[in-house]
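Predict the 3D structure for this chain.
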Amino acid sequence: MKVICDFTQSKRLHVDGGGFETLSCFLPIMGKPFLQHVLEYVSRLGASSLVLFLSGNADRFERFVGDGERWGVKTSYHLVKEGVSVHERIRNAAWMGSQEMFLLCNNAYLPCIDETHMHEPARFVLENGTETGWLLGTKAHMSSDATPLRATVVEALHVGSAQSYLDALARVLGRRGGPLVVLGKELRPGVWVGPGTRIHPTCTLTAPVYIGSQVNLGEHTIVGPDSEIGSGCIVDNESNIIGSSILAGSYVGKHLDVRGCIVNQNTIFNAQLNSAYVAVDEILATSVESEDDSIRVLKIPLGSRLVACMLGVATLPLYIAVLLVNALVYRRKITRLTVVSMRQSAAEETIVSEPGLTLTIPILRHRSEMCKGVRSHALWVLLPGLWTIVRGKSRFFGIPYRTREDFGKLSIDWQNLYLKSNPGIITEADILYDEHPEEEMLFASEMYYRVVDSFAYNRRLFLRYIKALFTGHNS
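Done. Predicted structure below.
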């Protein structure tokens, strides 16, 4: 069955005097964008191919959906001008048979339909008569003078407004989400917590609540019910998050009471008042990437370089042995990678495909090849990396360098995070995971480190790294 996706009317949360940067279809529910839930759902309904009609933000949708492999379907794209009728384009499409049945969907609603609804042409409406924009029909039903399709009343999740999004989130967390499958590790019934999350013993979690990976919940914080906190967030001491959604990479300051809101870094959207507030004081809410953009110079402390030099000299026999094993046993040489330098201007709205500053560093193994924990990391990454520190091109702890190719594959937020961060030979993910983590986990760990980066925290990382070296087990 063909599924035609009309994504030409994608909405942003909007109020007088400003808007919300995130498209509403990309707002998260249980750690996934609403759009992903839509695509997964139509795939379960039996979609064999997706035909996407796009207008604004076409590049973003195409990057997210890709070739459809992750959904198990084939995809094709059609770009239309604003104001052009998608129904008319479908009616005149040569690629669609005149009697071929298809499902028309959008990214604002997700109706609770199943296979029993997929036999007869129908349009799907809410109990109050509101059209969801979803229908099952043929090209003939796209004509303006065609007999109206039979209306089938269904329940649906809706993200067209801030309040409807929070209502949808509460329904899904309460297992009343209809077509959405609730997955994840439950700390206890109704409380989902991602890996690497730190919860202070005095924090109160009230079900239902979903907490992503690498989240830090401070002392005497209250989270829930009906709340979601995205990966890499920090909720500082004595703050409450109730009936709200905190998007990935956001920092909520001390002593705040966040109710019925969506927080996206430094923008707070109050659903009941339909108003947005941009915080200019980091005490309230900020991005985990916030920093004085005028500071661009990477400075490696002289002490770190001296320590790296002494360690390099002390381990030189071991390093030479590793080089010989690498050359004679694995038939590999030292690879000199050209990587994107950090501490340079970051992107605003578009991806930086050609970052200006690069440098060359030696490596023996790429991190994605590492699968045996910290000990393997020490041999293949740390030993050659010591001389990168001596040269003043990296710190002991930070975020790993990336090649131009790897940099170009990152999301806009991740590129901005990378360009404003400090490079390091040892990373948060190296200590947390025995195997190379998935992209989401890697992003979350880098966001978290970006916020907590300090001498005291790096000292803790050092102790955890030494412990893992002796025990053979990552944190």
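Residues 186-287 form a domain with the UDP N-Acetylglucosamine Acyltransferase; domain 1 fold (CATH 2.160.10.10).
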